[in-house]
Design a protein that fits this description.
Strand content: 15-25%
CATH class of the largest domain: Alpha Beta
CATH topology of the largest domain: Transposase Inhibitor Protein From Tn5, Chain A, domain 1
Order of helices and strands: HHEHEEEEEEEHHHHH
Largest sheet: 8 strands, mixed
Number of helices: 8
Distance between the termini: 35 Å
Helix content: 25-40%
Number of strands: 8
Length: about 325
């Protein structure tokens, strides 16, 4: 994702075929959520015989086992060209396992937590004088956030948005988390909603974290363009090589179209992908037609023909981009 261009660019695509074991595990997990627990609730406290387990020793799921290989290949590909420091993933990967995977690749993880995540402030009170020092302080209540952590407040219409930044602890994570809470309040009904963003980089300011999270939707727009304009949803390939080539070609054309559009939008800001495809199609029609003529028209007449034909399928009228040499 480019912060300057305010959009995402597909770089690597890898086809994933789930094994039968993964499909069975996913089906069993979904069935377990629907069934009511038949065993009585466990007594509070640690079960007898259980020992401490280092949090850094995590068991990677098949999904998290594939990401490091793609990350390493990407970092090797752009080594020295782009200084990458952060890995932005959606809320599905907002857990301790994904964070450790990112840190092993020397990247900071940015993601979202569940709205009801059990976050706590670091304990800052006096020590009891015996035993280990207390780590977890008061729990975070989203309806009563301390004012000293408030960074920004904006009001648009009847919606008030407050941004809070703080370092918090979670018992499932082995390190402090840089958390930004986006709390929205309906001033008419007083209804509240909040989003929990987090990063493993505790020195990061709150504005980049919010900005990066807002840019994540650009990834979905890449898939939308690839499906709508470049055949990602319509190709009929069935072999592994054919599927890989078709998917890569569709997402590659997203980048190509953006680069060619960028040149035209300097003089025609409304130039769209449909206009771009109309120009390509019209240019090809004119080229094939001109080859059938006994003599090639004069350059002025050829430019007029090209402009007229490419305008037939264009939505926004503008000067033609394509020219014959």
């Amino acid at each position: 994702m480019s912060v300057q261009a305010r959009r995402a660019f597909p770089v690597r695509v890898e086809q994933v075929v789930r094994s039968e074991a993964e499909k069975s595990a996913s089906t069993a997990k979904a069935a377990a959520k629907q069934q009511k627990p038949s065993t009585p609730p466990r007594r509070p406290g640690r079960p007898k015989g259980r020992r401490n387990t280092p949090k850094a020793d995590v068991t990677r799921t098949p999904e998290l086992s594939r990401l490091p290989a793609m990350l390493d290949a990407l970092l090797h590909l752009i080594a020295g060209l782009l200084p990458l420091t952060s890995l932005v993933l959606d809320g599905h990967c907002g857990n301790h396992n994904a964070l450790q995977m990112a840190r092993q690749s020397h990247l900071h993880l940015m993601s979202t937590l569940r709205y009801d995540a059990a976050l706590s402030f670091p304990y800052a009170g006096p020590s009891a004088g015996r035993g280990p020092h207390r780590t977890y302080g008061d729990k975070v209540h989203d309806d009563d956030l301390p004012v000293q952590y408030l960074k920004e407040t904006t009001v648009e219409g009847h919606m008030q948005t407050c941004l809070y930044q703080m370092q918090l602890l979670h018992k499932e994570f082995m390190q402090p988390l840089h958390v930004v809470i986006i709390a929205q309040t309906n001033l008419h009904t007083q209804a509240r909603a909040h989003v929990l963003l987090f990063s493993s980089d505790v020195a990061l300011a709150y504005t980049p974290l919010v900005d990066y999270d807002r840019l994540r939707c650009q990834i979905e727009l890449n898939f939308r363009d690839a499906k709508q304009y470049w055949g990602l949803e319509d190709f009929m390939n069935v072999t592994p090589t054919g599927v890989t080539n078709a998917a890569n070609l569709s997402l590659f054309m997203v980048n190509v179209a953006y680069r060619l559009q960028d040149d035209v939008r300097q003089r025609a800001p409304d130039y769209s992908i449909l206009d771009f495809k109309a120009d390509c199609r019209g240019s090809k029609y004119v080229e094939e037609t001109i080859q059938m003529l006994p003599e090639k028209p004069e350059p002025v007449l050829l430019a007029k023909i090209l402009n007229q034909v490419t305008s037939l399928g264009r939505i926004h009228l503008s000067q033609p981009f394509f020219r014959f040499a």
